[in-house]
Fold this sequence. Notes:
Elements: H1 2-16, E1 22-26, E2 30-34, E3 41-43, E4 54-56, E5 58-63, E6 67-73, E7 90-96, E8 101-106, H2 108-118, E9 125-126
Amino acid sequence: MKEKLLFTACFFILNSCNMSDGMIELPGNNAYYVEGSCTNRLSLGGGLGGSCNLIESVKDLKFNDDFICAVSTDSISCRLKLKDIPIEKRKYTVIDVRNGKVYCYLNKSEYLSFWQKYILDEDIKVE
């Protein structure tokens, strides 16, 4: 009985640990977990996002103090390089940290227009 109890306790302790390779704290209580191409994810904090609280398979992320711009894909295309992923398989998301708004499912031109307007080359880029 003690062995089963010890095994159960160890199982829950090990599974509750954050096993990610790295975590980058983003503005607005958001976090980017870097674990590999298919498991990189953006976690939105502060009640943002609604249906977009967790964005998985993030392929590209650009941010500054006011905006976070992410490109993600489905689990089938996640192993490809971003340039090789068909546009219809890409999901574009912009988080306006200042106003607490999340813009999910933008098309490519909306997304590019947004980050070119607000994200400068000297801002932090994670790829």
